[in-house]
Amino acid sequence: MEGAAPSLPTILREWGRIGCVGFGGPPTHITLLRELCVDRRRWLDAAEFEDAIAACNLLPGPASTQLAIYCAWRLRGLAGGVAGGLAFVVPGLALILVLAAVFLAGAPPAWIRGAAAGAGAGVAAVAVQAGLSLVPASRARARSVLRWAGYALVGGVAAATVGPWLVLVLLGCGLAETTLRARAPLLALPLFAVPTGGLGALAWVAFKVGALSYGGGFVIVPLMQPDAVHRDRWLSDGQFLNAVALGQVTPGPVVHTVAVVGYAAAGVGGGLLAAAVAFSPSFAFVLGGGRWFDVLRGSPHARAFLDGAGPAAIGAILGSAIPLADALGAWWQFVLLGVAAITLLALRRGVVPTLVGLGAVGAVLGATHAVAVS
Question: Most buried one in 202, 212, 258, 270, CB count within 10 A?
Answer without folding.
Answer: 258
